[in-house]
Amino acid sequence: MEVSIVILVLAIVFVSQALRIVPQQSAWVVERLGKYDRTLQAGLNFLVPFIERVSYKHSLKEIPLDVPSQVCITKDNTQLQVDGILYFQVTDAMRASYGSSDYISAITQLAQTTLRSIIGRMELDKTFEERDLINAAIVNALDEAAMNWGVKVLRYEIKDLTPPREILLSMQAQITAEREKRALIAASEGRKQEQINIANGERESAIARSEGDRIAAINRAQGEAGAIKEIADATAEALRKVASAVAEPGGMEAVNLRVAEQYVDAFSGVAKAGTTLILPGDLSNMGSMVAAAMQVVKQGK
């Protein structure tokens, strides 16, 4: 009975030492008698108890690594507080185990030194404009060095670029001045467009008024010409009718009577219009005055 218990305990220990279940996206490094033997992949794996052991366990997932903030000096001697975040992935478990005593610390230190070097070759304004270029340069530099550590650097992102307070204030003032300049330019462009629109409106209005005046003048002239023509036609027709009436029997006598009436009416009108009355030289000889008027009528015929 005791022997059976001992055998069972030994069997449990053997199985626990022999079986290893590796999670997905993980790689375990196995050493046999202190020497690298193989890398276990995800799933169930077997080890030789007491001879082999799992020395290192690595995750093959993408790992974010916060790079501590540091002070960098730009080409124009401005201090910048810069921090970022690095994304990497273990691609070779054996190199990650034996390539460096601490590959995370090595990556972090290399990222900081590379960042200082790149920032030192750029002026302050460029550091804000060329963030993508800085990120790409750091990734290239780290990826080349990290190959010996079994690590693939995927990307680097600058989180903050913080200049000194004096520089921030001057940058803010510059931005404010630039915005004010743009506002003034926009306002002047608005006034310019407004003046152009007003001038165009006045020009079009003046053209419309002159066109209206021209058409009105033409219409008035045509109306006056038509009126004159109608009057002339009516006068001609009246004269023709008078001449025809004079040629008929008794026509001349009627004309004499009409002329005598108009003569008398004319003097009557002159007397009513003013205080001064002009009379013909011989009022008693009304017949001679009518005869003189008729002589004029005859001469007109």
Short description:
By secondary structure, the chain is an alpha+beta fold. Helices cover 61% and strands 21% of the residues.
SSE inventory with pairings:
Blueprint: H1 2-18, E1 19-22, E2 26-32, E3 35-40, E4 43-46, E5 52-59, E6 63-73, E7 79-90, H2 93-98, H3 103-120, H4 124-129, H5 131-146, E8 151-162, H6 165-247, H7 251-273, H8 286-300
Antiparallel strand pairs: 1-4, 2-3, 2-5, 6-7, 7-8
Helix pairs in contact: 3-5, 7-8
Discrete helix count: 8
Query: Which structural category do the helix and sheet elements fall into?
Result: alpha+beta
Low-confidence runs (pLDDT<50, min 5 residues)?
none
Overall shape: it is rod-shaped
In terms of quaternary structure, the protein is single chain
- The run of helices and strands is HEEEEEEEHHHHEHHH
Give the strand content. 15-25%
Helix content: 55-70%
| Span between termini | 176 Å
How would you describe this protein?
The protein is rod-shaped. The protein has eight helices and eight strands. Helix 3 packs antiparallel against helix 5 and helix 7 (251-273) crosses helix 8. The N and C termini lie far apart (176 Å). The mean pLDDT is 86. By secondary structure, the protein is an alpha+beta fold. The protein has helices spanning 2-18, 93-98, 103-120, 124-129, 131-146, 165-247, 251-273, 286-300; strands spanning 19-22, 26-32, 35-40, 43-46, 52-59, 63-73, 79-90, 151-162. It is 61% helix and 21% strand. The chain has a three-stranded antiparallel β-sheet.
